[in-house]
Design a protein that fits this description.
globular, mainly beta
């Protein structure tokens, strides 16, 4: 019990500019899941906290789950995005490549859609990040019908997420806006 007391703690992965979401041990490496402007990043560190490499994810999205074991350099990541169905990836803590184990499929042509990360200023001048999902070619102005999903500030929404039922909304010219509570800057806008 004595070893678990705070005076015995030591920092392994230093605080950085991104929000730490999860950490797994895979073999003799640490796999760190961080969130940058609402999008997941996976990085590999040695056990002393030295950054070794980024893991190549197939595109910007959200890692929903991360699983590894100390006795194996293989770990698994479950990822999705607004227009990328949920997929399970097999990854190695020794290399940056990934391979698909299993993936949901969509009957729709998802290449007709896109999402962007933007910044807007709140009334008090605070810059707030927002993710926008829409059909390509949509004019994003005040005339576009918009659904705004927000958590009310209590918990950050996991974004981007895959929701196939929203495809009809996008097809009809609708816009989805997800403000990212964890992506707020004071005094300047992030791009």
């Amino acid at each position: 019990a004595r070893a678990w007391r705070r005076p015995n703690w030591r920092e392994v992965v230093a605080e950085g500019p991104f929000t730490l979401a999860d950490l797994e041990v895979a073999g003799s490496r640490l796999v760190v899941h961080a969130v940058e402007r609402g999008v997941s990043r996976l990085s590999v560190y040695d056990l002393e906290g030295t950054a070794l490499r980024e893991i190549a994810l197939p595109g910007p999205g959200s890692v929903r789950d991360l699983a590894g074991r100390p006795d194996s350099g293989v770990f698994y990541a479950l990822q999705e995005s607004f227009f990328q169905p949920t997929a399970l990836y097999r990854c190695s803590s020794e290399a940056s490549a990934t391979s698909v184990v299993e993936a949901l499929r969509s009957a729709a042509d998802l290449s007709n859609f896109e999402f962007q990360r933007e910044t807007f200023l709140a009334r008090d001048g605070t810059a707030v990040g927002v993710m926008l999902a829409f059909k390509k070619g949509l004019r994003k102005d005040r005339n576009a019908p918009t659904i705004v999903l927000a958590s009310g500030g209590l918990l950050p929404l996991p974004a981007p997420f895959y929701a196939p039922h929203l495809l009809a909304w996008f097809e009809k010219g609708g816009l989805l806006a997800v403000p990212l509570i964890m992506w707020i800057t004071h005094g300047h806008a992030e791009h």
